[in-house]
Structures are given as C-alpha cells and as structure tokens.
Amino acid sequence: MILPAGFYRRPTLDVAADLIGKVLVRSGGRGGGFRLSGTIVETEAYIGEDDLACHASRGRTARTAVMYGPAGRSYVYLIYGMYCCLNAVTEDPGFPAAVLIRAIEPLEGIERMMRNRNGNKRTTELGSGPGKLCQAMAIDRDLNGADLTGPELWIEDRGIQPGPIRTSPRIGVDYAGAYRDKPWRMFVDGSAHVSKRPSQDNTWRKL
DNA sequence: GTAGTGATTTTCT
DNA sequence: GAAAATCACTACA
Question: For the domain that residue A130 is a member of, what is the CATH number?
Fold first, then answer.
C-alpha cells in the first residue's frame, strides 16, 4: 500500500517514527525502466521556523518554499555543493516541516544502485547516509517538489516490522543552539544500514 | 578500528 | 563572502 498524503499531514515526530520500516521506491526510465527500493531504517525530524536546525528557521525562501506547501511532497536540496538529501514534507500547509530520510536497507535494484554508487560492492554502503541513498536511488533536485504518492518516487507500507527503534540527537546540526540536542533522530537499533552507529554514549534512550 | 581533512557550489548575508 | 541536515580518502593505532 502506497502511503497517502494524509499519512504525512500529522505531527512530524510521529511521521518520522512511523516511516521507519516503510519502503522507499524509485521508478524511472522508459517502458518500465528501472525500479529501486529500500527499507527506511533512519530518519530525522525538522520542525518549523523555531527549530534552528530546520532550513525554514530563516523563513520562507525559494529553497524552503516546498516545506510550506502541502504534506506528502518531496523536498530535495543540495548539501555541501555535492550531495542531495531527500525529505518528506509534513504537517498542515503553511507550517514548514519535513522528515529527512537518512538511511535505507536496499531491497530491489541492488545491482543498479551499486552502479549509481560508482561500483561500490557493499550493500551497507549503498544507503547508509542521506547523500548516499540519493546517489544510489538516482534522486536529485529534479525531484524536488515531487508528489510522494508516485509515480516516480513513493513510500509503501509492506507490513514490515522494524526492529527496536532508538532516538539520538540529529547529525551535523551543532550550530542549532537549544535545538542541537533534541532527540529527533530515529533509527533501527543495531541495523548495519544506519549512517552512524552508537559510540560509547549512554545519553541515547530507548523510544 | 578511529581521527582529520579536502572536495564543490548553492544559498543567503 | 561564509556556511552548509555529507562523503571519501588518508594517516595512524
């Protein structure tokens, strides 16, 4: 079942948690073309203009406009001049928020994903990071604003029961002041496909 | 195994 | 002009 727009039009933390275990699917090319997919194992929530880590904290601009639009669309942006990151827009129109898809466990089209990733042979290196998964699944800014109910990019519920979910502070947002330590990153505990494994850090709590 | 650093360009100040 | 929701590579243990 493809997740409907209503799935995304909810509190962002709920969407971030519920997306764990869902399947991200990318389809393209002519006449059937290709189909790539992977189970989502890591997400992060970015919530509103008050959240100093959220791009919308600087207000509405050409880049952040999608986040102010309806839920269930994609927000794809370029980071560090080289990589793209994929988000799902959440909440009511007018309230800027999104869930960053940070890691997937590859399911379908693994051979093609390896080619997209410059011949990388390890499945754990195909989707264990927001830039990596976009490269593997051929997601770039052409898909910014795309409807996440298809036909190029969507997320399905296949009834997968993810392992235990943990939370942690978000990655790479040390500049975000009081919002730096918010435990708004969600990931499958122990998965080999998440972007970073826990170090000696007992501040992370069970969800 | 961990730590440090350069690549590259859009975006907003 | 500075910073950025990252990654790959190198050096070293």
Answer: 3.10.300.10
Residues with CB under 7 A from strand C: A 44, 46, 53-55, 75, 79-83, 85, 87, 98, 100, 117-118, 120, 125, 129-133, 135, 170-173, 175, 195
Measured distance between the N- and C-terminal CA atoms of chain A, rounded to whole angstroms: 26
Beta strand residue intervals within A31-91, DSSP E? 34-47, 74-79, 83-89
Question: Exposed, middle or buried by CB within 10 Å (0-12, 13-18, 19+), for A77?
Answer: middle
pTM assigned to the model: 0.94
User: Total structural domains in chain A?
Assistant: 1
Tens digit of each residue's pLDDT (9 = 90 or more) over A47-72:
999 999 999 999 999 999 999 999 99
What is the C-alpha radius of gyration for chain A, rounded to an integer number of angstroms? Answer: 16
Contact A153/A143 with Cβ under 8 angstroms?
A: yes
Listed residue (A155, A129, A143) closest to A28, CA to CA: A143
